[in-house]
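Supplementary Methods, section 5.1.

A reviewer requested that the exact input to the structure prediction be made available. We therefore reproduce it here, unchanged from the version used in the analyses.
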Amino acid sequence: MLTHRYDTWRSGANLSETVLTTRSVAGQHFGKVSEREVDGDIYAQPLIKTGVVVPGVGTRNIVYVATVNNSLYAFDADVPGASKPLWCAKKDVFGEPVPKQEVVDLPANQEYLNFDTKVGIVATPVIDPDTSTIYVVAYSKNGNAHQFRLHALNLASGREKTEMHSPMAIEASYMGNGVGSVEGKIRFDPRKMLNRPALLLADGILYLAFTSHLDGEPKFDYHGWIMAYDAMTLKQVAVVNTTPDGIQGGVWQSGGGLAAEPREGTYPLIYAVVSNGSVGGRNYSQSLMQLYPGQLMSTKQVFIPNNHEYLNDRDLDLSTAPLLIPDLPLAIACSKDGKCYVVDRSDMRLVQEFTAGMNSYGGERTSNIHGAPVVWRDSKGILRLYVWGEEDYLRAFQFNGTRFVGAGKSKVRAPEKSMPGGMLSLSSNGSIDGSAILWASVPLKDDANAGTVEGILRAFDAADVEKELWNSGLNEARDRVGMFAKFCPPVVANGKLYMATFAEPAKAGQTGRPNSLTIYGLLPGN
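The structure derived from this sequence is encoded token-by-token as follows.
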């Protein structure tokens, strides 16, 4: 588990899981086995590297956990009682995180609610096993200056790799006449930017993407940015501004990463989803972008929905990370309008637009889709796709050779007036029958976008999502998740499931629970 959603296709599926099956997880055979306490909310999806030789300790499987308090923990991924990190890089490496009130310019009577206190490491890092390096982007404050820096750390020790020129200041400019332009040039302003999408490592190049903290604050005065860096030297090799002659165009993707095709022929193409903003000319908001890679990074082709003005006016932008179907020339992105768009990657032509989320409670509010779809091919060769929108049931679709059609839904649904729907992952032993489990992290109730709410973890039979195998509320005293980590999907590897959490606020007469990584697995005796 070296990158967000398991692979650069962003499939959301670990197809090498041999321990957890539909049979072993059902009933009382599966539950919480340990927790790892950390010092801040976890927005970044945890990563796992097996067989790391730790100096003075030996060979370990390690789970890496980053927090908004600018800390990166390396924990033993397996031993239940190993609560102390093998190493931890903190503020002395990454700098002081930025107080949340400093990243927005809201009126005095309004509060920025997307973060609880501070903003530090938000995007999911990425691991290069060939060089034993984990790459991290940290947001920090140096005096009165705000800065993003790209770090390269040793997997085994946490040592900063200065030989790679780590840390590298993230700076950029782009020619354009859009908002904020001075003499025909737009400069990257770190104070108002958010590095939300997971990092992408493809063919020796690191890709980072940026959005704003809030769409309309102030006066839509921001742009989306995509930057490319050489993974060995951390030298910036290319920059793309998504709206150089307009406004907005943030790349946020609900925290998901840019996607990449593997190298076939001359180069792997890169894919990004761009949200609200200007469309036309060199402006590519409300789009699924296809980009040339590396030093050539520039727009090759784009798909933009025909009703982009309608979506833009109602803040119903494309909201998920791109998903590439590994064995088909298709890319998928979904929206806050409850729609999924299937696009032919060869010419970025729309193949299908279908409703994947609907308000099942009957209200007028649309079923926003934030969690990117997950795909899996079963033993009969049927390609299945899974989506869980707000105020809706988990829905399965299957590809009939030309389009996706409905293939069932769960018996449970996301709570009424809750956000942001279900964050999904799948684990299986390839396409073997009885091995595929669809995991979902969902709020128990209320709006997790604007506050901290309790979550629940659910497991479904991927072959029939009507069958819920297990959930963390069946034995709440033992398996309770705690506070929902928004936009952060479960991680399954080597017979265990790793779930990020937020801190639990203190209640009257009670102290709150600290932030933690919660680990589930087969219980002793099973």
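Residues 9 and 324 are 5 Å apart (CA to CA). These observations are discussed further in the main text.
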